[in-house]
Amino acid sequence: MKKYLFIFVTLSLSQSISDYTYTGAEVSALAGAVVSKPGNTWSIFHNPAGIAEINDRIISASSGNLYGYNWLPYNNLSATLPFSFGNISFGAQQIKTKHKKSNLATEQTFSLAQGFYLQKDYNSQLAFGYTANITQWNLGKSAGITGDGEYGLDLGTSQTVTIDIGLLASLRDKYRFGVFVKNINSDAIGKGMTRHVLPRRINVGATYIPIKDLITSLVMERLLGRDELSMRGSIKYELNSYFIMNVGAQSNPNRMGIGGTINYNRTAFSYGIITHPILSITQQFTISMKL
After folding, report:
1. Which of 36, 58, 69, 76 has the lowest tally of Cβ within 10 angstroms?
2. Ordered DSSP codes for 32-72
């Protein structure tokens, strides 16, 4: 049974591994409904326009095992630097598929993003952002004559460049609207039989902030070229200056998220989980520091 489950998950990830939409503990807890929320360390992955709203130098790192399996580790790192001409962010993501001591496949994405204001006044603001991603796909060895890869062939490495764009608008710090387009240049990776068209996705969302400590969001997500539509909602509530509660849910497929953030001085520790309709939950831990 474990063998078939392993094959099922591996094949599923091969179609969507380049577009994991729950980057970081907070985003997992919010079920990915973050495209229109105030900018944070995850903005480089989910809406680079939010980078314009970050006023501090921040570095953040996250880690977790997808669906609870130690052979599917996922890690990411990001850093944001404010500049007068537009804030800059750097990011990296890595997902591995491992079997015993061998790496069957490793995907790494290195990102550079900029977010800046197109318009800003006392009542409203409009920001734009873009992200350039270099994606590397490293395949392990083939099974070989022994079936364990010892005498297998090295399947090589492929890489490509994709571009993401985002737009973020707000009015009186209460009403917010965000749009994010993933892989707008419709690139693919690999050649011949290994050619894989990378996913294209659009997220459109609205956020309402009735009071300073409460943020609510509703997001629509669609993979371009497909008819499926996913709806996501989230609530972020700041209980006090030390603790923030995050909850979220999505449809198609149905998933639930929950987690929290503890703030201590200029450091934040976040934990988030998200369910799956078939597989086990995914847990992520994040640490962020303001420098």
Report:
1. 69
2. T--TTSPP-TTHHHH-GGGGGG--S-EEEEEEEEGGG-TTS
Say if residues 139 and 147 touch (Cβ distance below 8 Å): no
pLDDT tens-digit series, residues 187-210: 777 666 667 778 889 999 999 999
Q: Domains along the chain?
A: 2-290 (2.40.160.60)
Of 2-11, 68-77, 89-98, 279-288, minimum mean pLDDT range: 2-11
For residue 253, whether the previous peptide bond is cis, meaning omega lies within 30 degrees of 0, is: yes
Query: Which DSSP string corresponds to 168-200?
Result: EEEETTTEEEEEEEE-TT--EES-GGG-EEPP-
Of the candidates 79, 80, 71, 76, the one whose C-alpha atom is nearest the C-alpha of residue 94 is 76
pTM: 0.86
Our separate counts of H helices and E strands in the chain read 3, 16
